[in-house]
């Protein structure tokens, strides 16, 4: 009987794998697929890989490669945090028309110490002329910043807002889409990932359709929308509520407004961003939202330029803001103007306010905002094979001990 040669053929047919810069993070609990698992994390040239697949494809131990081993000491490895709403930080205001590449780079570097690896610079309501000038400028600046957290795109918060819920936005810039359409207002939307608007305004549903057809995520906020108007916005393509409870009608049992969307049938529920700083939302409100729609939470900072700075007066667009401790208000008022609490603290707060699991707290700042921006099935915001190794080393209290960008230590 002729001996089978299939085993030899299978072995010889294995392709030599790319050697590259191989690393093994061991002695850790990794946040993978919604749970903390005791599993090593492997990276190759700054990208997460499947080590078992690499072993199968290699022709032997020498071909597999000798990894650099990073001992994690029992800590948690998580994807880095993604902040989809940040107006500025470290003295930089993204609404300042004089902003330059060095300013964006300063924020990008500073966010690393708070575990933030990706962010959407957020522009408050502005004039059409400002958008036409600033949007292409941000595209250029993003390309010129080579280190730190990645500014993946812009969040345009306004100016399609309800005047009655303008918050800290300059009322002179507010308008509705029927007065000036999306293309006329913003110009080319290259680099824009998210737009916040009020769905009840004339022309808003058409604007939502225009934006989503152009690949822009739409969120509903700064609004007096009823629950039915919110559902119309969701059905038109909006997939998020901006900073839940803030700049919208309070919950009422006869018309719960946008907050009521957390209680509609599951298929029509949008996600919601929430500022877990203990000021914009009472801890009990954060907990209520979480229990109503636990798979919809996306944590944001809504930080303004004073985040990371000492107390005092600072700028938010053309408005003056007074910062005291963890609170930022418009000068001479008690109107909250933004936040100064960083993302790592928001994650810790959310975990404490809701008593959710560590994995659930991490999901609200990593994989869920990634899915919002890039769609279901994306590996961004995860530790799955193919994802860029932008990761955090955390203790059980969710303090950040190290931030890795493309598998390299960027801050510790």
Short précis:
This protein has 412 residues and is α/β, with parallel strands linked by helices.
Poorly predicted regions: 1-15
| Separation, N- and C-terminal Cα atoms | 64 Å
Count the DSSP helices: 12
Arithmetic mean of pLDDT: 92
What percent of residues are in strands?
A: 25-35%
As a whole number of angstroms, the C-alpha radius of gyration is: 23 Å
Proportion of helical residues:
25-40%
User: Largest sheet at a glance?
Assistant: 9 strands, parallel
Shape estimate: globular
Helix/sheet category: alpha/beta
- Please tally the β strands and state the result: 25
Give a verbal description of the structure:
It is built from twelve helices and 25 strands. With 412 residues, the protein is α/β, with parallel strands linked by helices. β21 (327-330) and β22 form a beta hairpin. α9 (283-292) crosses α10 (343-354). The termini are far apart. 48% of the residues are buried.
Q: Could you list some keywords that capture this structure?
A:
412 residues, alpha/beta, nine-stranded parallel β-sheet, 25 strands, disordered N terminus
Strand and helix map with partners:
Layout: H1 6-13, E1 22-26, E2 29-32, E3 35-37, E4 41-44, E5 47-49, H2 51-57, H3 61-64, E6 68-71, E7 76-79, E8 81-86, E9 88-89, E10 92-93, H4 101-111, E11 116-123, H5 128-144, E12 150-151, E13 154-157, H6 182-186, E14 192-197, H7 204-213, E15 217-220, H8 227-236, E16 240-241, E17 271-274, H9 283-292, E18 297-299, E19 312-316, E20 319-324, E21 327-330, E22 336-339, H10 343-354, H11 358-363, H12 367-374, E23 391-394, E24 400-405, E25 408-411
Parallel strand pairs: 1-6, 2-7, 8-11, 11-12, 11-13, 13-14, 14-15, 15-16, 16-17, 17-18
Antiparallel strand pairs: 1-4, 2-3, 4-5, 7-23, 9-10, 19-20, 20-21, 21-22, 23-24, 24-25
């Amino acid at each position: 009987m002729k001996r089978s040669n299939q085993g030899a053929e299978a072995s010889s047919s294995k392709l030599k794998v790319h050697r590259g810069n191989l690393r093994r993070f061991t002695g850790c609990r990794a946040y993978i697929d919604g749970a903390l698992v005791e599993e090593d994390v492997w990276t190759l040239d700054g990208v997460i890989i499947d080590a078992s697949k690499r072993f199968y494809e290699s022709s032997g131990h020498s071909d597999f490669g000798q990894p650099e081993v990073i001992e994690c000491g029992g800590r948690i490895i998580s994807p880095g945090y993604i902040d989809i709403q940040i107006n500025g930080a470290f003295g930089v205001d993204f609404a300042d028309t004089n902003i330059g590449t060095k300013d964006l780079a300063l924020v990008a570097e500073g966010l690393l110490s708070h575990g933030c690896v990706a962010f959407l610079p957020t522009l408050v309501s502005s004039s059409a002329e400002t958008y036409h000038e600033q949007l292409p400028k941000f595209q250029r600046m993003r390309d010129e910043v080579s280190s730190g957290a990645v500014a993946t795109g812009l969040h345009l918060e306004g100016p399609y807002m309800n005047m009655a819920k303008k918050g800290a936005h300059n009322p002179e810039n507010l308008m509705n889409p029927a007065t000036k359409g999306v293309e006329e207002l913003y110009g080319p939307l290259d680099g824009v990932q998210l737009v916040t608007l009020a769905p009840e305004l004339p022309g808003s549903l058409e604007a939502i359709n225009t934006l989503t057809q152009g690949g822009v995520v739409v969120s509903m906020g700064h609004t007096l929308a009823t629950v039915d108007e919110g559902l119309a916005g969701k059905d038109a393509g909006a997939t998020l509520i901006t900073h839940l409870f803030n700049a919208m009608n309070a919950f009422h049992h006869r018309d719960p407004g946008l907050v009521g969307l957390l209680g509609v049938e599951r298929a029509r529920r949008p996600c919601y961003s929430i500022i877990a700083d203990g000021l914009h939302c009472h801890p009990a409100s954060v907990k209520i939202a979480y229990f109503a729609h636990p798979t919809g939470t996306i944590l944001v900072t809504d930080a303004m330029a004073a985040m990371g700075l000492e107390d005092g007066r600072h700028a938010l667009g053309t408005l003056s803001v007074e910062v005291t401790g963890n609170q930022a208000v418009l000068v001479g008022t008690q109107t909250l103007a933004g936040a100064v609490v960083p993302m790592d603290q928001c994650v810790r707060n959310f975990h404490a306010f809701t008593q959710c699991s560590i994995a659930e707290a991490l999901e609200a700042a990593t994989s869920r905002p990634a899915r919002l921006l890039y769609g279901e099935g994306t590996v961004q915001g995860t530790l799955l094979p193919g994802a860029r190794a932008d990761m955090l080393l955390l203790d059980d209290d969710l303090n950040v001990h190290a931030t890795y960008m493309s598998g390299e230590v960027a801050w510790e």
